[in-house]
Amino acid sequence: MRIGLIECSTSQFKIIEDLTESLDSKFSDIQIVPLTCPDPSKIPVCSKRLIKEGTDSVIAFTTSTSEEATLLSMVSEKIMDIEIAEGKFIFLIVVYDDEARTEKQFKQIAISRIENSINSILGLSKVQINKDNNENQIDENSLDMEAGTGLKESSDKLSGDGELPPDGSSDVHSLF
Known about the structure:
α1 (16-26) crosses α4 and α2 packs parallel to α3. The protein has two domains: 2-132, Lumazine/riboflavin synthase (Rossmann fold, 3-Layer(aba) Sandwich); 150-176, no CATH class. Strands 2-1-3-4 form a four-stranded parallel beta sheet, with helices on both faces. The protein is globular. With 176 residues, the chain is of the alpha/beta class. The chain is 39% helix and 17% strand. The chain is built from four helices and four strands, in the order βαβαβαβα.
């Protein structure tokens, strides 16, 4: 599995070298495809580039301040658009400047979050493989076929057949 790893050149520290060493010992079945982008606003473009180059998923890493929340919100929205268009997952990992005091703490937080994202990617790919092999994870016979019919509402709000009283005295809000 190929996973793209984006690192912003504006980040307070560089993570790719430390991360590659850590990941090689923990995840032997993945290949990291690194890419450096100029700033967080370019993460969506770089993500799309990595997907077009054949990566299965992308993890984008940056450090930030709380003042950049609006920018990161816009980046997140653009990432969702790319995920929908391409059918691939993109994880945005942000370590804020007030989360750690030293570079070592920053790196530990970042590596932990990236490893969690990789575990999610690997877990998602296993579910997809199981789905492709027709090994359903959900027993369809165990699903409650009455879901959404109102049959389990309280008896004083519903008539015996699961319908609202014919006088219309009950509205949806009174059911709660």
